[in-house]
Design a protein that fits this description.
Shape: globular
Structural class: mainly alpha
Oligomer: single chain
CATH architecture of the largest domain: Up-down Bundle
CATH superfamily of the largest domain: GntR ligand-binding domain-like
GO molecular function, one term: DNA-binding transcription factor activity
Strand order of the largest sheet: 1-3-2
Protein name: FCD domain-containing protein
Keywords: DNA-binding, Transcription, Transcription regulation
Length: 219
């Protein structure tokens, strides 16, 4: 892994986790000290993150963490529904036994982590990502999977910090694991229409939860 790749992954992780706050200036000297890297790999990383819309550049001011807004969050989730619905249909069409087994394993691992007595949001998040990625893994479209990665990162910027601030790893009044299980059941049954509908409803509920919590924080 190159220094540029290491810088990219480190800064990207800290933005998604909220350790680098929305709107925060990203000064080279500060980043160099924080990540123990030179300016060149950091500049390459920031340029790459700008393409992913996690970072914005300002004339004569350098880079800063992209701001957050309800409108952007909703747009990102709406686009996720479009991209992932299409990718999920293709995965159901092309998926084999190994793909099905990977979905079962990812869901099982996620459920185990959620049920642990000591809840770690980041451990849950890693398995949450693995489950959603497994659903689309057989789509045979690198472009769709790349868009999934970008949009997932964008929406997690909203979901994770707000859930941590609320003091719970999952929204109240929702059985998210039941939602995941229902999606997996439809996928494994090769019921594309039901699977796509359940996935869209899952993301729509998440968007509503985030919007409500952002409004509470703003108030």
């Amino acid at each position: 892994m190159t220094l540029s790749e290491k810088a990219y992954l480190a800064i990207r992780r800290d933005i998604i986790q909220g350790k680098l706050a929305a709107g925060q200036p990203l000064r080279m000297a500060d980043l160099s000290e924080r990540y123990a890297m030179g300016f060149s790999p950091l500049r390459e990383a920031l340029s790459r993150l700008q393409v992913e819309r996690l970072v914005v550049a300002e004339a004569l001011r350098g880079f800063k963490v992209a701001p957050l807004s309800v409108q952007e969050m909703q747009d990102a989730i709406d686009t996720r529904i479009l991209v992932e619905s299409d990718a999920l249909r293709l995965s159901i069409q092309h998926g084999d036994d190994d793909w099905s087994a990977a979905i079962v394993a990812a869901l099982y691992a996620l459920n185990l982590q959620v049920e642990r007595s000591i809840v770690n949001v980041w451990d849950i998040e890693a398995r949450h990502y693995a489950f959603h990625r497994a659903l689309l893994a057989a789509c045979q479209s690198p472009w769709r999977l790349e868009f999934f990665e970008r949009l997932y990162a964008t929406t997690e910027r909203y979901r994770i910090p707000i859930l941590i601030a609320a003091g719970t790893p999952s929204p109240s009044r929702r059985d998210i694991q039941a939602e995941h299980s229902a999606i997996a059941d439809a996928v494994l049954a090769h019921d594309a229409e039901t699977a796509v509908r359940l996935l869209a409803e899952h993301y729509t509920r998440t968007a509503m939860t985030i919007s409500a919590r952002m409004a509470t924080v703003a108030a």
